[in-house]
Write a sequence for this structure.
DNA sequence: CAGGATCCCGCTAGATACTG
DNA sequence: CAGTATCTAGCGGGATCCTG
């Protein structure tokens, strides 16, 4: 039947579209930085510990596992390790283990990681410029529909 | 015991940190655009239907529900409606229902929405410039550890 | 100190069916 | 046409315990 074939075509179109999305660089980037901890780790290693104060200059520094863990108070070891691993895998930071006793591991941003960190600056700027406007709109909308 | 009190302090610190995160404008923005469909809807209404071709000029246009639904082949009605509603709530787009039979509803970006759409351009540029480098790093890393 | 391994729970996206 | 309502499975992420 034609209806069946049409349904198949639709499903195939959806599959292709989803495949396209998976391959899309912008999508991949968004999936990456949408991760709560990625940007925060970038900030930590990038040197600005107060994400709300954009003026603070860059002072990229290496940090140890426990330092990061202390700085990002909300993170679980699992997520921290997982995130660090994937960032290392992508060449955004380097992991250096020094065989002291006990072991010492430090993480540091690569140039690529630093460049991504700068990218997030742009996001912060937009957010600080427009986010309160969004919030106001939201409140007005909620008040209207109550 | 001191250990108990220390644990409490840690938990409180975590709670405060998480509250801080929830209030952070950058975080809110990221939560918003990390949504798969938000950016795609922005692209659709913003006029560039080929996210991989940054050269295409802006031609913001109003679109009907079914148009968007057809363009974003992978989306479910639920997610589409949900996303559109929240975008309207935030003042990023407008919803206009014309009481014809059957009803006609069209969506259009506001200036704010358009500005966010331009923001995503920056992301796309970074993605196109650096994402293949990331991918290469990833492959190398995987090859090394295999 | 810096993680690995497991269990488990909440939330959300998606499918399906119905409506003004 | 443009949604709403409901149900469910899957999985991301936290908590917990263990190790080199």
């Amino acid at each position: 039947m034609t209806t069946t074939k049409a349904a198949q075509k639709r499903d195939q179109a959806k599959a292709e579209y989803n495949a396209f999305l998976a391959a899309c660089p912008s999508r991949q980037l968004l999936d990456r930085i949408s991760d709560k901890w990625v940007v925060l780790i970038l900030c930590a290693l990038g040197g600005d510990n107060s994400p709300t104060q954009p003026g603070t200059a860059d002072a990229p520094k290496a940090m140890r596992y426990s330092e990061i863990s202390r700085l990002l108070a909300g993170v679980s070891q699992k997520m921290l390790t997982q995130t660090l691993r994937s960032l290392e895998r992508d060449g955004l930071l380097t992991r250096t283990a020094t065989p002291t006793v006990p072991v010492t591991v430090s993480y540091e941003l690569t140039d690529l990681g630093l460049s991504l960190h700068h990218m997030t600056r742009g996001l912060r700027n937009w957010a600080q410029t427009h986010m309160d406007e969004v919030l106001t709109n939201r409140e007005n909308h909620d008040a209207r529909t109550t």
In short: The helical segments of chain A are 2-23, 25-33, 36-46, 65-71, 77-89, 111-144. The mean pLDDT of chain A is 90.
